[in-house]
Every structure is written in C-alpha cells, then in structure tokens.
Amino acid sequence: MKKWNLGFMMVGLAFLISISVLSCQTNDDGDYSQQVAEVTAADLFITSEAHQNLEKEIRKSLRKKQNAISKFSREEMEQYQQLRKDLLNMETRAEAKIQWNKLLGYDYYASLDRISNLARKVYEGTDFTRLELMKARQKRKMRQVVITRVEKDEEAIRDCIAAFSEIAEWRTEDCLNDYDIKVMDIPFVSWTQVAILEEQYRRECDQCTQAVDDYLQTGISNCESSNGTCPITAFH
To answer: Signal peptide location in the record (predicted)?
Structure first.
C-alpha cells in the first residue's frame, strides 16, 4: 500500500469540506456524469462488501461511545475529560485505560483493536493514495445528495447529524489505518523498541480518535441547536 503523507491528509480535509457543502445544498440538474465517469480502484474499494462491513463496525462503535457519553453525569463528564488527558501521558496511561473502560461501561480498547484488525484485513493489498480515496468518497456522496429542509424539524436534524457522523466515520477509519501503517513499518531493533514505538503510535491514534469525538459531539450539539440549517464545519 502506498504511504499516505500529511499532504494527502490536508487534501483529504478539503474534500471533506466540499462533501459537507454538497450535503447541505440542492443541485438543479443532478448531472454528475463528468465527476463519476471514471471508475477507479478506490471507487470499487469503498463499494465493496468488505469495506461496507468495516464502515458499519465503525459506525456502531461511534454510536456506542456517543450513547455512553450522552448519559454521563456532570461528575462523570469531568472524569471523562481528565482521563482523555491521562491517556496521552505515558505515566498515567495504563491506569487511565482501565478507568476509561469502566466509565464507558464496556471494553473500548478491545473494540478499537477489533476494528483496527478488521481495517488491516480490508486494506491489505490495496494500492491507492489518500487523495484517491477522498475522491471516491466524494463521488459516492455526490450520488447520495438530497435536499435538506430549510425549516427546523426532526428530519433536518437527523440529516445534519448523519452528515457529521459520516465524516467522523471516515476520519476514524483513517486514524486506524494510519496507525496500522506505522506499526507495520516499525524497523526491528529489539522487542523493547518495537513495544515503545507501538505504544507511541497507539497514543497518537487515541489523540486522533479523540479529535473525531470532539468534532462529532460538537456537530451533534450544533445540529440540535440550529434553526434548520446545516452547520457543517471543517474537520481540524
């Protein structure tokens, strides 16, 4: 698989913004023939059964975590915020992972590892760039564009939350795939060195998925408090 560098990540964010805009507006003629004429390996990949199953698992994981967080008391939310910081500190990380699972009410890290292993199998043997993947996602989204209601109602809010959730799903998939690529590329010096680097990459993956959680929670809040518009923002 080709390595996906920072440049492609930035381009990917630009595509996510364009996708978000498309999901919030109508299209007069619905003619996307020029954009979708060429079928690429990435197009076939994201429509494959294996990738769709991966998306479902990521979606279920995000929903499960969001449901747990939505039920937190004020004290639990404070603990949640503190644990997020502790998870990124090597000295407090081990105990924080235990408390994190207890707070969420399920083994979050076992779930994350399971999805990461699934992503590794799904991406195995693929040979396309992050840019090509973003283009494929954009074309698929363009085919699914629907008119968003202007008035504030339950359907408009659901559509808004769905748009944020879809971006969160894609970014979570990218976080896990980036982690797997880094782990597979670890040079063998000693088992100790491998373990240190793997833990470092896991922390980076946690930081990446935490940013996704922040984006999704903020997005859901914005959708619920909006006046029926689609307040999609760029992923930072």
So the answer is: 1-23
